[in-house]
Amino acid sequence: MPLARAFGVAALALLLSLDCAADTAPALGAKLVVVGKSGTPSVEGAAQGIAEAKQQGEFLGQQFELSIVPTPDAVPADGVAAILTTGQDDVARELAKRHPNVPVLNLAAQDDALRARCAPNLFHVIPSTSMLNDAVAQWRKQHPDAQVAARAWHPKFEKYAASQLNLRFEKRFEHPMDDTAWSGWAGVKLVTDLIAQTRNAAPAMLVEALRTKLAFDGQKGSTMSFRPNGQLSQPILLVAGEKIVGEAPVRGVADVDDLASLGESQCVP
């Protein structure tokens, strides 16, 4: 399979930019842990992400590993570059508190209150409830009677190499990629891409880099980064039935590049 098809244009650019450095740099390894149950979409998405990171790492002299553990208690005390969680608010908060110097990426919990707490090492890949609500509200300003749902991802999304990502996931797991599967994939990919770019897998350095250096496409066609409250800014898909009818920010209601028009950004004192 051609390299551009396997990883998309953004990943190909990363390979080309770092290939020369990899010839002389020492091998770099990083272990990621996902807290969840094997066979769930978010864990499968993370598995897809680590498979792509491993293949990419072969060109860069980098080694990536993903371990799946069932509970926060099973997360190793050290030697972990990043932790991903498929649990709800209490699990994300517990992990961030137990591992204060390690980035913890929330793949599933959408509650706005979790984001408002602003734990410095807690990052939210899945969109918040307010982001989804704002996306629907923007759409209804132009289509008052529309019955739409807001989604982070959709298996029929085709733009920005999304169709290739959907095909890779469905070929591997024999079912479509949904919102949490995308967040699992994105959580692993944004961490491993950042490690590849900075050539640094130290957890404390990753926390800082995720807050200040991230520029992630995620096959959504926008440069995404983390907000002060730890939420990943991102476009939202608007779906009626099983048909994608639009994207938010909604053109004509908000600037299409104004990702901050969706959801909250600041911490609550």
Any descriptors?
alpha/beta, three-stranded antiparallel beta sheet, 8 helices, 8 strands, globular
Write a structural description:
Helices cover 42% and strands 15% of the residues. With 269 residues, the protein is an alpha/beta fold. The protein has a domain at 3-127 and 173-230: Rossmann fold. The strands form two sheets. Strands 2-1-3-4-5 form a five-stranded parallel sheet, sandwiched between helices. It has a three-stranded antiparallel sheet with strand order 6-7-8, with helices on one face. The longest helix has 22 residues, at 3-24. The protein is globular and about 55 Å long. The model is unreliable at 1-7 and 20-24 (pLDDT under 50).
Write the layout of secondary structure elements.
Blueprint: H1 3-24, E1 28-35, H2 41-60, E2 62-69, E3 82-85, H3 89-98, E4 104-106, H4 112-116, E5 122-124, H5 129-142, E6 149-151, H6 162-173, H7 179-198, H8 203-212, E7 236-240, E8 243-248
Parallel strand pairs: 1-2, 1-3, 3-4, 4-5
Antiparallel strand pairs: 6-7, 7-8
Helix pairs in contact: 1-2, 2-7
- State the helicity in percent bands: 40-55%
As for the CATH topology of the domain at 3-127 and 173-230, it is Rossmann fold
Number of helices: 8
Oligomer: single chain
Number of strands: 8
Distance between the termini: 51 Å
The CATH level-2 architecture of the domain at 3-127 and 173-230 is identified as: 3-Layer(aba) Sandwich
Please state how the strands of the largest beta sheet are arranged side by side.
Answer: 2-1-3-4-5
Radius of gyration: 18 Å
Summing up helix and strand content along with how strands pair, one would put the structural category as alpha/beta
Reported for the largest beta sheet, the result is:
5 strands, parallel
State the CATH superfamily name of the domain at 3-127 and 173-230.
Response regulator
CATH hierarchy class name of the domain at 3-127 and 173-230: Alpha Beta
The SSE order reads HEHEEHEHEHEHHHEE
Q: Give the mean pLDDT.
A: 91
Strand content: 5-15%
